[in-house]
Amino acid sequence: MHSADDVKKSVRKYLTVGALLFMFTAITVAANQVHLAIPAAITVALIIATIKGSMVASVFMHLSAEKRWIYGALILTLVGFIVLMSVPSLTVRDSIGTPIQVPAAAEHAKH
Amino acid sequence: MNIPYVVEERPDSGLTNGKLGVWLFLASEVMLFGALFSTYIILRTGAVEWPHGELNVWLGMANTFILIGSSVTMVMAWASLKMHDFGKHRLYLTLTFVLAAVFLVNKYFEYSDHLSRGEGPWHSTFLAIYYTLTGLHGLHIIGGMIVMAYLLGPGAALYKKNPDQFTNRVENTGLYWHFVDLVWIFLFPVLYLL
To answer: pLDDT (tens digit, 9 = 90+) per residue, B130-139?
Structure first.
């Protein structure tokens, strides 16, 4: 439970985080104007987005001081999210679409 | 019959039922958007070429600023209630609603600009996933606006009867709204910059 005094102290923190989020957005766009190589651009943009997302979750959504039931639910979500993000790598490891080499003997037996 | 634990916290979880419910809902939302981001990765890595510079970066950046601003006003709307200032709460919540509307107006201009050039979702794989992701996100914005309109309109009467319950409703709405902002924080670089 947040008391009125706690919230009063947090107001400055909310405004600071808001300003930082604006700043990081500007940095993301500025980094994009530099025209980095695609892998570097993806890395930079996603690192900044992750920092921004963490700030929103921890400060605005008060995740930095939440109850363990919420952490438990989010850990389960995180596991599911990692599985979902792993799906693309599974699609490149399967054999769907790969031509099957028919052994010559089997081919001969058909005739 | 009254719904239990809407104001006082449950002794076992230390949470109100509403707050736990919203967090579980947000967990399902992570799965929904996670599946779509995963789809984006599959489509992009499987594509022979991927378009760059098709979207207006400045409009996307403006919308990012707008949503971040709305997150700040949303948390301030809740903080004002905690500090027993109902007038300021209404001001901040109205600002949040207006910023959400401005976001949608920008999106309307962006969509209509593309559609006027025949660039609908059928045009390319990139635009198909762009419309799917931003369209779904836009629906979430509309959903948040409906809840905010209720809290500014008929729902505000609860403040006189039960201010703590009303404050909890605003906090739960805020949790949802910050999540919508968080999704956009990832959508913006993925769709507009990379």
So the answer is: 999 999 999 9
Which one of A6, A8, A9, A25 would you mutate to disrupt binding with B, by most B Cβ within 10 Å of its Cβ?
A25
pLDDT in tens, A96-108: 666 666 666 666 6
Alpha-carbon distance B56 to nearest alpha carbon in chain A (angstroms): 12
* Full-model pTM: 0.89
**Candidates A42, A59, A70, A85, partner chain B, best to mutate (most B CBs within 10 A):** A70
Nearest chain B CA: its distance from A103 CA (Å): 30
Provide the number of structural domains found in chain B.
Answer: 1
Which segments of B47-85 does DSSP mark as H helices, in order? 57-82
How far apart are the CA of A101 and the nearest CA of chain B, in angstroms? 24
Range of the domain at B58: 17-193
Residue of A nearest to B21 (CA): A70
Residue A111: how many CA atoms within 13 Å on its side-chain side?
A: 4
Share of chain A above pLDDT 70, in %: 81
Size of interface A-B (CB pairs under 8 A): 122
DSSP at A58: I
Q: Cβ distance A17 to A55 under 8 Å?
A: yes
Residues of B within 8 A of A54 (CB-CB) are none
Q: Give me the CATH number covering residue B83.
A: 1.20.120.80
On whether residue B7 sits in a domain, the answer given is: no
Q: What's the first-to-final CA gap in chain A, in angstroms? A: 80
Asked whether residue B6 is domain-assigned, the answer is no
Establish if B2 belongs to a structural domain.
Answer: no
Residue B110: both structure tokens together: 């962006």
The yes/no answer to whether this complex scores an ipTM above 0.85 is yes
Please, are residues B15 and A67 in contact by the beta-carbon 8 Å criterion?
yes
